[in-house]
Every structure is written in structure tokens, then in C-alpha cells.
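Protocol step 6 of 9: fold each sequence in the batch and record its C-alpha cells directly after the sequence line. For illustration, a two-sequence batch is reproduced in full.

Sequence one:
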Amino acid sequence: MTREDYLALLADEADRDIPYDPEPIGRFNVAPGTKVLLLSERDEQLHLDPVIWGYAPGWWDKPPLINARSETAAASRMFKQLWQHGRAICFADGWFEWKKEGDKKQPYFIHRADGQAIFMAAIGSTPFERGDEAEGFLIVTAAADKGLVDIHDRRPLVLSPEAAREWMRQDTGGKDAAEIAVDGSVSADKFIWHAVTRAVGNVKNHWSN
């Protein structure tokens, strides 16, 4: 998919301050600790900024966190401010999970059965546009259910396009965001998965879809 394919599902061109780019997205193996294009709202328009995937505030003396649980993030000391003021969307066509099979781990690629775009809820430290190596962002996760639980017990919180747009609005409060996280979530039965090569474990490897 192209960047435009994702953006067109969220807002008209007048509602986004993002250069038009008709080229297919060429990065398909994204790892924590790298910069990811993150979509958020500023001044009632959508913006796209490269932001580090991983969150480690100055007082945190452990490796950066990469996920935040949707069930607890809104009230947590660590994430409350991010939930209130740093909501964003990470778009993709799917994600990888690893499952232990015997004495090895097998990666699976998970995506929507209908081939539609995936909008993952994210929270992070604003302003996203600063572009430095400071505090970054986390993917919001939900409990896996139905067949997905066979692959992993957690999954990204994937929102419908309508819910994703509401999630990013600056005038959406934390309580409303919590409701969006529940009501706007794409259900597990919309996803399918298949085994892929273990070469995805090396971020230097990239594929087109």
C-alpha cells in the first residue's frame, strides 16, 4: 500500500499537513528502537513524524518499553499523561508475532483477512515533531482472543478508520479515548495469519507485499 492509501481512509487532503507520496511503502520489517512514521493531530490537522519506537523517561533505568496495556494505561503513573495528550496511530498492513514450537520459535505474519489497512493505537511523548532521540512512543495492546490467542496472549489494539481518527483528536479526553479503545477495536475474527521465514528476526531483511 502507499502512504496515500492509508491517509485517504482517515481524512481529506485539506485535513492533513502531509506531502502527497504515491510510492508504495518500502519498509516491511520494523523493529523497536528504530524510527517509525507516527500519525497524530496538531492544530486540527494530521501530521506524520518519524518517532522512536520505545519509551524511556529520564528517570527510567531499564530498557525502553515498547507496549502499553489498554486496560491499565489510562490510569497508570507511567502512561497517564501519554494517554491524555500523546495519542497517535501507527499504520501498517500487519504485524509479526513469534510462537514457540518445539525448541524453536516460529514467526507468524498477522493481517486483516479482507486486506484492509491496519491502524494501531499508540501513545507517546509529545511534541512528536521534535525529531530528536528523546522519549518515543509505545504500541497500545489488548488481550488476544479467539484464534489469535494461539499465537500470542497480547495483540496490538487495532482501530477502525473512524475510531482511529477520533483517537487522534486533541479534544478527545482520556475517558473518551478509553471508550474508543473498546468500541472502536477491530475484533480478532477479522484477522488471519501464516508462518513466515525466521529471517524476519533480522531487521536488515525487508520484503515488499
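Sequence two, same batch, same settings:
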Amino acid sequence: MPATTINVHKKAGMIARLNHPKYARWAAQIRNTNGCRNPIHLRGHITHHDATGAVIRRYSTVHEPDGILRIPCKTRRASRCPACAETYRQDTYHLIRAGLVGGKCVPESVRTHPTLFITLTAPSFGLVHAHRARAGRILPCRPRRNITTCLHGNALSCTVRHKATEQRLGRPLCPECYDYAGTVLFNGVAPLLWKRLITATRRRLGPGVMLSFAKVAEYQRRGVVHFHAILRLDSPRGPAQPPPPWSTTEALVQAVQEAATAVTAATAGRTLRWGTQLDIRPLTEHAASYVAKYATKAAECVGVLDQRISPLTDLTTLPIPDHARRLIAACLDLGLTHWAHMLGFGGHFSTRSRHYGPTLGALRTARQDHVKQEGHAVAHWQYAGRGYSEGDALLAKAITTGGPR
């Protein structure tokens, strides 16, 4: 459809909405979604009762604009809805922070428990372009005095000083040499490697201490996941009591280092393990913000589409970089079809151990309990669609960014 026709439709839709007698109520619904990009439409009714059973109030969508109620989609992915992802990020931040400094049923004494912030990376699957900096100076990507070439005739050297925002970052120096199969297989077993790392670390620490954790997964530009995690030592009875005196930060560091070196996972005839770049840092409260930031991201930095990919899809038609296309093709070839759009990774992006602190479910329950203090409700809802028309989308964006009220 020509662009001019689309513009006409948008304008017509905007004018119709602005002139609608229920525009003010429609705008109020949009503001109540906090800027959700793809709100869910509900049709139905709800009746609130007090403790005696008397009706407090009734609500029905019959009199709403278009006969529906719009509510936030509540996705965690920033690529789908930045507004709802921000709510998820803030919830994650508060949960992780509570496990560091106390609060939300976690005692403040956890501040004194041995705690680490670690980053676990994948091994190398081939040379890729990288942003390197030192003391504020950008360094050459991969300089070599004696420039050599691979079997495919590509130089295994790069003297370009890449900026941090360049699209080229993470792309192989030679796509033919790069191990695409290894990359997606590692993504596939990364959750298992994490589980085995935690198990091995606990075994090295012994039964007299409890290891609690919170971790998130992040995609590197090359398309492989790595994990950021907070590890904390508690008493075997939980965070309310300190761990035994022998369970020091140094003991935790040694246990993690030994476990990261030892654990492996086998798949498709290959044995995969963590990379040698194990980063262990002293913990600061800023770690909560750092970890929560990645809880809303997926594989967007690699250039992958945020949607499932059918085995019948013609990958050459997808508007994605060649590196991402090859990673997806490797997933399809290896039977990782269900998670091809995630480059083989099917794990959770944000997880916490049972005793680390509160959960997102606990937060939701607390909110529901707060609402129930007024009494109880009987509701009947039906799904009636989601999203906006083109004209409504422009108006909604204007309303939530300070436009027409």
C-alpha cells in the first residue's frame, strides 16, 4: 500500500477518535496503561462486595469506548513494549536489592554476608570484531604485526578502532571459519551449565552453608549468552542468620572458580563448558541496577527478530544481518527450531534461588492482597484483542509523551 494511502488512513483514524464523544475516557484508559505499546483488550464486568456481602460498586465495559477495557500487556521484553518492560525492570531491581541490603521480608543483616558479583562467559567460537578501550582511548580491534589469512582468504587481523555503537561489533572476521553450530549449542546448554555450576559450588562449600543467588542472562554482540549473577552465603537455616565463620568471601571465590572450570555439558556429540573469562568482583549496591537492566532484553543486539521462526521461513527474506541469519540457520539445522529466534537459548532470563529474597510472584500476590482488603470481587472477563489501529497508535504515543490530553 502506498505511503500516502497509509497517511490518509492514519489521519482519518485520528480525526475520528478525537471527535468521538468518549475521547476523554479513551485517553484516560491510555494514560492508565502507562504508555503500553500493545495493550490487551478485555470485555466483561466486575462486582465488588464488602465483608458483609453488600455490593460496593459495579463496573462494566459496556459503556467504555469501543466497549472494551485496555490494560497493560505486562511483557518483560523492551523490544515489544518499553513501558511494561520498565515496570518489570523496576520490580526485578527491588527484588535483587532486597537480597543485598534487606527489605521485603529479607533481614538487613544480609549486608554482612559474603557476597559476590560474577560474570560467566562463553568460550570463543571464532574471531569477531570488538570494541576495545583503555584509559578512555579506543584501541585497534585485533591488530597483528604479521597479518595472516585464513583458509578462506580473509585477514585474521583488524586495525579499525571500533566505536561502541558500531553495527559491525560481534561479526566474525571470517564467517566461514566461525563456529555457528557451537554458538547455538552453547546457548542451548547454558541453563544446564548454570545449574551444574551452582550444584558444584554448593558441593565444594559443604553442607554447613547455604548458597543463594540471583542471575540474569545477556546476549553478547556475537550472539552468545553469558550470565551475570549475585551469589550470597547464608546460614543453612536461611538469610535470617549469618553463615559459619569459615565460609568467607575467599572460600566462595575459590569454590566458584573450581566449579566453573570443572562443569561441562554434552550435546550433539560435543562437550561444552564455560569460557576462561570468569569475572569476579566485589559487590556494590549498583549491581542490582546492573543485573535488573538485562532482565528486559533478549537477542535484539544481534539483530534478531522478536518472533518465532518457522522451519519453512525463507531466511533470505528476513530483514536481519547475515551473522544473525547464519545463527538462525544453525538452529534450524540442529533441531533447535523452537528457540531459533532466541539463537538456541530457551532458558529464563531472570532467576533467583528460593531463599535469595522475594519473588515476582510474591510482589503480585502482595498487590492482589492489598486490593482484597476492600472486600472481594466477582468478575467475568473475555479477551477481545490487543494493540492499536494506526491512528490510535499515534494518538496514544502523543498522550503518553505529553501530547493532547
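Proceed to step 7 once all outputs are recorded. Observation for sequence two: The chain has nine helices and 13 strands.
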